């Protein structure tokens, strides 16, 4: 693990985005609440938030961080996708980029798990950091 003890504590925030693409019929199943395992988007939101909080247990060498906020938004994107965005905030010595990307990834995997019986060909795509602020490197915004 990298020693960050000499770094100053600053407010750090990161936003990541991704999507899960599926057949239009599968998106309709989610939108209409007809998935056999329950509220797909509600469970995916909770799973993503929980994953952000446990990133240090999932990704080797990540620092455990006291997160002050995690928001996870899921939006149905007709005709065939769910768009996922996670924003994570902390006041600490290292950034929360990994927590944001983990939240998006786990939310997408949860959606896959909950409706895979209807559509095993779903694709998790474009998980990426879109914005980061705070810390020594300052502001990053993806083009």
Sum this structure up briefly:
The active site is at residue 113. By secondary structure, this protein is α+β, with helices and mostly antiparallel strands.
Structure description:
The chain has helices spanning 24-31, 40-53, 55-58, 97-115, and strands at residues 10-21, 67-77, 81-92, 123-133, 140-141. The mean pLDDT is 94. The chain contains 4 helices and 5 strands, in the order βαααββαββ. The protein is an alpha+beta fold. It has one domain: Molybdopterin cofactor biosynthesis C (MoaC) domain (Alpha-Beta Plaits, 2-Layer Sandwich).
| Chain-averaged pLDDT | 94
Q: In CATH, what is the class?
A: Alpha Beta
Q: Count structural domains.
A: 1
Q: What name is given to the CATH topology?
A: Alpha-Beta Plaits
Instruction: Extract low-pLDDT stretches.
Output: none
Largest sheet: 5 strands, antiparallel
Radius of gyration: 16 Å
Oligomer: single chain
Tell me the span between the first and last alpha carbons: 30 Å
Helix content: 25-40%
Q: From the 3D coordinates, which CATH architecture would you assign?
A: 2-Layer Sandwich
Topology as a string of helices (H) and strands (E) = EHHHEEHEE
Q: CATH superfamily assignment?
A: Molybdopterin cofactor biosynthesis C (MoaC) domain
DSSP helical segment count: 4
Shape: elongated
Relative strand content: 25-35%
Class derived from helix and strand content: alpha+beta
Number of strands: 5
Q: How are strands sequenced across the largest beta sheet?
A: 2-3-1-4-5
Protein name: Cyclic pyranopterin monophosphate synthase
Function: Catalyzes the conversion of (8S)-3',8-cyclo-7,8-dihydroguanosine 5'-triphosphate to cyclic pyranopterin monophosphate (cPMP).
Catalytic activity: (8S)-3',8-cyclo-7,8-dihydroguanosine 5'-triphosphate = cyclic pyranopterin phosphate + diphosphate
EC number: 4.6.1.17
């Amino acid at each position: 693990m990298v020693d960050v003890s000499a770094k100053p504590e600053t407010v750090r925030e990161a936003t990541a985005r991704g999507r899960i693409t599926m057949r239009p019929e599968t998106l309709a199943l989610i939108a209409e609440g007809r998935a056999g395992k329950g509220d797909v988007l509600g469970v995916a939101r909770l799973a993503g938030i929980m994953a952000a909080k446990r990133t240090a247990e999932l990704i080797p060498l990540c620092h455990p961080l006291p997160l002050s906020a995690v928001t996870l938004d899921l939006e149905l994107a007709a005709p065939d996708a769910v768009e996922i965005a996670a924003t994570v905030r902390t006041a600490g010595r290292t950034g929360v980029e990994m927590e944001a990307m983990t939240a998006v990834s786990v939310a997408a995997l949860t959606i896959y798990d909950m409706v895979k019986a209807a559509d095993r060909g779903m694709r998790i795509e474009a998980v990426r950091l879109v914005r980061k602020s705070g810390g020594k490197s300052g502001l990053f915004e993806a083009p």
